[in-house]
Every structure is written in C-alpha cells, then in structure tokens.
Write a structure and sequence with these properties.
The protein has 13 helices and twelve strands. The longest helix is centred in the last third of the chain and has 18 residues, at 257-274. It has helices at 34-47, 59-62, 71-76, 83-89, 94-107, 118-127, 142-149, 164-174, 200-209, 225-230, 257-274, 283-292, 328-331, and strands at 6-9, 12-15, 21-27, 51-56, 110-115, 132-134, 155-159, 181-186, 212-217, 235-239, 294-298, 313-317. Helix 1 runs parallel beside helix 11 and helix 5 (94-107) crosses helix 6 (118-127). Strands 5-4-3-10-9-8-7-6 form an eight-stranded parallel beta sheet. The chain has a two-stranded antiparallel sheet with strand order 1-2. Strands 11-12 form a two-stranded antiparallel ribbon. The protein is α/β, with parallel strands linked by helices and 346 residues long.
C-alpha cells in the first residue's frame, strides 16, 4: 500500500514537514447544549488548536436499545441508564451541526465531526465537512469504512481496541478507494493508565504501513501527546471540557481549556526541539565553532621545505584561522612552503 504522504484538510497541509495538526475533541462534552458547544469552540480557538471536533450519530441507527454502557461510562454517568438512552440525549441535529460549523468558520477554526453510522455520514457530507474522522469503534466496520472512503475526502482513522491484523484489513478495504488517510494510535478507554499509552505503536504503524500517523490521546492531563509527536505523530486528538465535574461520559477523562492550551504549547515546543533533521551547525553555533574548534599550528620551528610531522605540529584554538585539525592526516608528510615559528598558524 502506498498512501499519500501529504494531505490537505481545509487550509492545513499535513505531512512529515508540516506542524502537527491538533484536534480539540469536544465530542459529546456539550451535553446537548449548543451554547455550551460554542463555548467549547471558543476554548479550542483560545488554546491554539487547528480543529475542533464533535460527534454525529442517530442513536436508533447506532445501537440496540438494551445495550449496557461501557465500563468507564458506568463510572461517569448513571449506571442504570442504558447506553441508548445516554446517546439519545447527546444527539446533535443536522441543523445544529450546520450552526456549529458556521460558528467555527467565523472563529477561524476547522470544524470536524465523527460520523458513527450511514445517515450521519451522509449528513456531514451534505454539510461539507473537509474530512472524516472515523472512531476506533468502526475500524472493524469494513463496509462503513468503504462508504467513508467513497466520499473522497481525507480520513483520520483511529486504531483503538484492535490488533495489527485488523488495522491491515481496514486499510486494505480503504486503499483502493481513498489514499488520503492518517492512521492514529489509540487506546480506547477514558482515561488510560500511563502504561497503556503505548506510543511506540506510532512508529510501528508508520513502518508497517508507510502511512501518515498520529495519536488519539486518552491519557490523563497533557499526557502522552508531546511524546507521540517526538515519535512521528503528525495529528494529535485530545478530549477537552469546560468542567471535568460536569455530568457526562467523557468529562472526567478530558483536559481543561488551560490544559489544552498547555498541550498545544508543549507540542509546538517539541517541534522546535525536533528541528529539520539536517546535521549542520546552527547560526548560534557558527561563532562558537570559530572560537572553540582547533586548527593546526607549529609545535616548534619548522623550516621551509621541512616535512610536517607529529613532532612539529599540533592543534590549538586559533579563532578559526588556518587549517582545521580535521585535516591533520592530509597535512602529515607534506612539505612546509615557508618558515614557521612556534604557534604560527599553518
């Protein structure tokens, strides 16, 4: 498979040379309140995120009515409530989604949303989202992956809760239809223990599939994201909330706006630390190099025509003047073209 190594989402290029594309995952942390959703967008803008993402689903299309909640959902919400009833309360209509997208445009931040079933996928296509994020829950939903791929827009695919073989089968389904894919390492619990982050999988996925990779981060606080960037993640996704004490499935595992801002700041700092990978002196090193690196000088008097030998030359700091000590072997055995006194620069 040969996936594209550079993709564009709205006005942002994502490739190995570009800044990390940071998604502030609002998810369902709006609690069904569109004013709260707009406040989340404002917080994402303030933090410096590239995009803010919500979730689009029709509970009747997504889940059977008697399904229990996931273990973490039982902890963060009423354990006696079904997953269906919880999701029903958190649905966002197409009209509401349009308003949120328009609000994002006014605030100059990219709007994204995750479709969880076919109707929501079609609605988001109608609305004109610039890319589709596919949740880990659908990595093994092969026909849905094909439907997403056929929309011919970039795909950000989370690889949580799955084996490497399942990732491979998912990519094999998408590849003939759409090569604009970013694959995210993810551990799909909320929150995860530090030992579960496994960010080395970012390298595994990149090397195995030769694909742009990222990290969907469910670790606590600023957490693993900056370290994932150091391993090659070009997209970072992080849940955030206005208040961790709100009622809802994801609030407690989300970062605050201040933590989101710190995450963005830390990632941008990591990018500066990483540099461009070209080994050469930096601008600030040039003068230091001149002052500290050594050149060849006469250890004792050398007469014109005399051979340079280990006994009559040495290396000292000369403020950059003369022949670098790097070329010592090239000088040894050649003849002096002039007389040299002790410490004269060769």
């Amino acid at each position: 498979m040969n996936f594209n190594k550079s993709i564009v989402i709205e006005n942002k290029i994502i490739n190995m040379q570009s800044p990390t594309f940071i998604i502030a995952e609002a998810g369902v942390n709006h609690n069904g309140d569109m004013n709260l959703a707009k406040e989340l967008i404002d917080a994402a803008v303030e933090a410096g995120a590239d995009a803010v993402k919500f979730q689009a689903f029709k509970a009747d299309e997504l889940i059977l009515k008697k399904i229990e909640k996931a273990p973490y959902q039982k902890i963060t919400t009423d354990k006696n409530e079904t997953q269906y009833d919880m999701l029903k309360r958190l649905e966002v209509t197409k009209e509401q989604t349009i308003k949120l997208k328009d609000y994002c445009k006014r605030k100059n931040i990219i709007f994204l949303s995750t479709p969880f079933e076919q109707l929501s996928l079609n609605e988001l296509e109608d609305i004109g989202v610039p890319a589709f994020k596919v949740a880990a829950t659908d990595l093994t939903n092969i026909q849905f992956l094909r439907d997403v791929a056929l929309k011919n827009k970039p795909i950000i695919l989370s690889a949580g809760m799955c084996y490497l073989e399942e990732v491979e089968r998912a990519l094999e389904a998408v590849y003939p239809l759409n090569k604009n894919v970013v694959l995210l390492q993810c551990t799909a619990n909320y929150p995860i223990q530090d030992s579960e982050a496994n960010i080395n999988v970012v390298k595994t996925l990149r090397e195995k599939f030769d694909i742009l990779v990222g990290y969907s981060d469910h670790s606590q606080g600023v957490g693993a994201s900056p370290f994932a960037v150091a391993l090659g993640a070009k997209v970072i996704e992080k849940h955030f909330t206005l208040d961790k004490n709100m009622t809802g499935p994801d609030h407690k595992a989300s970062v605050t706006p201040a933590e989101l801002g710190q995450l963005v700041e830390d990632i941008r700092r990591v990018e500066k630390y990483l540099g461009n990978g070209i080994k050469m002196p930096t601008c600030s090193e040039q003068m230091t190099r001149k002052s500290l690196q050594k050149c060849l000088v006469a250890r004792k008097r050398i007469n014109k025509g005399e051979k340079f030998e280990a006994e009559n030359i040495t290396a000292k700091r000369t403020n950059g003047a003369g022949i670098s000590a790097l070329y010592y072997d090239d000088i040894i055995g050649s003849c002096a073209s002039q007389d040299y006194e002790v410490d004269d620069i060769i």
